[in-house]
Amino acid sequence: MSAAQDLHDLERTQLDSQWLYRQGDLVLGPLTGHQVVEKLYTGELTGETDVSASGPSGFRKLKDLDAFKLHVAKAAVKQRVEAEARAARARRNRARLITGGVAAVVAGGLGLGAWQIARYSAVYLPGVDRELDIQVDPPVITVAKRSVPEELFDYPGGPKPEKLPSKPSETTPDKPEKPEKVASASLSQKPERRASGGRPTGRVSTDADGLSTEVNYDQAAINRVVKQSQSTLYHCFKEEAERRPGFAAKVPLEFTIGNDGRVAQLWVDHPQLKKGPLFDCLLGEMKKWPFKPYTGERATVNLAFTIGKK
After folding, report:
1. Quick one: 150 and 296 in the same domain?
2. Could you read off the pLDDT of 151-185 as tens digits, one per residue?
3. Residues 248 and 144 occupy one common structural domain
4. Each residue of 49-107: pLDDT tens digit?
5. What are the beta bridge partners of residue 299?
6. Angle, vertex CA 181, rays to CA 177 and CA 182, nearest 5
7. Which of helix, strand or coil describes residue 208?
8. C-alpha span between 308 and 259 (Å, rounded)
9. Which element (helix H / strand E) includes 36?
10. Cα–Cα distance between 143 and 199 in angstroms, integer?
11. Which of 40, 59, 141, 230 is deepest in the core (most CB within 10 A)?
12. Can you give the pLDDT at residue 93?
């Protein structure tokens, strides 16, 4: 019993003593033995910390002192458990972040896709927009005027452009040919025929001034392209309706098809829409319409859209 009593007394003496401890090159303290135990459990000191109760020359590790061995072991277990708990919390937080990020990306992708589908449907698919009604009159195809230069075409409903004076020829014949001869010569021309011997590719007609015109465009083909492509203009009118709340009007269009099969000119017969965003949008879309190239006089197409609220 004396040995156990001596050990107990030694431990109590060590706990009541004043201790210095080292951290790196620093010597700190003094602390009572009970304060040393508290720092063990908070993790500020470990079993490898050097301490001394007899001055700077007597440092020993805490794990080698009988009074602190049990506390060193308990503190190590406590620190290990807390470290594992912190690691588990960190893993859970990372998993939540990854799951949340994936969910946000998926939701964003779905939302963007839904917005794109809704926008495409509202702009390009006829009948989807329940508030705006668009109706189209059948196209009327005529021959473009020859007597007026291209940049001076009549704007439907506008003033008539002045005719440019004819340029005199460099050599004047002694006896100019009479107009009626020119007309008769034009009428005597035969239309060009296909090499296979089928129907002619065009026809020759004479206008009021006695000038012959060669018409080779295919009206049926033009009608097909207009019917297939006219819905591409709907989004232009819907965008105009967004710019003009309550927009409702009949908008007649007239456009000329060049010999290369592309829309060359456009007129909008509406006093407020002759120029501006709607005109630019319509012309940009119509330039994409795939008409067939042809020779001879150019075709002019009249097309009217009626815009209103359902």
Report:
1. yes
2. 434 444 444 444 444 444 444 444 444 444 433 33
3. yes
4. 998 887 767 888 888 888 888 899 999 999 899 999 999 999 999 999 999 888 888 88
5. 143, 257
6. 80
7. coil
8. 35
9. helix 33-42
10. 20
11. 40
12. 93
**CATH of residue 25:** 3.30.1490
Three-state secondary structure call for residue 147: coil
Asked if 214 contacts 295 with a C-beta cutoff of 8 angstroms, the reply is yes
Joined together, the tokens standing for residue 152 give: 């001076």
- Give me the amino acid identity at 65: L
The answer to whether residue 172 sits within a structural domain is no
Residues paired with 43 in a beta bridge: none
Q: Which two tokens stand for residue 254?
A: 């007239």
Could you give the CA distance from residue 94 to residue 41 in angstroms, rounded to a whole number? 28
Quote the number of domains for the chain.
2
Q: Which domain holds residue 51?
A: 2-74
Between CA 220 and CA 32 the distance in angstroms is: 108
Which burial class, exposed, middle or buried, applies to 259 when counting CB atoms under 10 A from its CB (0-12, 13-18, 19+)? middle
Residue where one domain finishes, among candidates 42, 74, 106: 74
CA–CA distance, 24 with 10 (Å, rounded to integer): 28
The residue out of 23, 48, 74 marking a domain boundary is: 74
Q: Are residues 139 and 67 in the same domain?
A: no
Report which of 218, 76, 35, 211 is spatially closest to residue 141, judged by C-alpha positions: 218
Domain membership flag for residue 41: yes
Query: How many CB atoms within 10 Å of residue 39?
Result: 16
38 located within any domain:
yes
CA atoms within 13 A on the CB side of 208: 2
Banded pLDDT at 205 (limits 50, 70, 90)? low
Burial of 262 (0-12, 13-18, 19+ CB in 10 A): middle
Q: Which of 9-13, 168-172, 266-270 has the lowest mean pLDDT?
A: 168-172
What pTM does this model have?
A: 0.41
Say if residue 17 is in the same domain as residue 142.
no
